[in-house]
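Hi R.,

Here's the chain you asked about this morning:
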Amino acid sequence: GFPSHPHRGMQTLTYMKRGGIIHEDSQGNRGEIRGGGAQWMSAGRGVIHSEMPTVDTSGMHGFQIWINLPAAQKMGAPRYRDVPAAELAAQSAAGMTATAIAGDWQVGGLAGLRGPLSELAERAAILDIELAPGTGTGLRVHPDENLIVYVYEGALEAGGRRGDMLDLLVSGAGDELALVAGVAGASALVLRGQPIREPVAHYGPFVMNSSAEIEQAIRDYQSGQFLEENANG
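And the predicted structure, written out as tokens:
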């Protein structure tokens, strides 16, 4: 697990496929999710949290996505939310299962999928898709957004480019991305969002816009200002 540590200037989204995890933070939040559930946190100006496996967890499979906050939101108040598996939007059809974690999705012939997490920055959206061997589908792409596909099991083609397990595929221009699973099928996370187009300075758990802001974040954490600012905010 990950004992207590700080964050500033970004959001985290943890999505568990198997096993359980417990979140606790300096705002007094505590949440527990198990296989299929998600946890979302916006660190804003600063939060200290821990993420530890549940006592009955014997194996874990999951993902944590970091989502950059635009400069105007980086020093906002921290927020947190749990989403159990039963609340995620999932549909199945013709060798395909699609689970929307965040955002609106148009996937092949499925009815519109809307993930329950609407708090992600800059229209960020996440979809988990599983395809049977040889199954194909299409994803609608907004022209103002970037879309990437992370293959975590099997292999697939995305827009005519092959992606094997652990490959990351970035979409090109167009209004639809075609996905076709390989002979063993495929499972992938699809991530979509609107580019912020601001400078990024990253150091450990801090994601800001400049080196000076990173240095200030380190000073604030070391002096206890994280908690003081949130208590007075």
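Residues 133 and 184 are 5 Å apart (CA to CA).

Let me know if you need anything else.
M.
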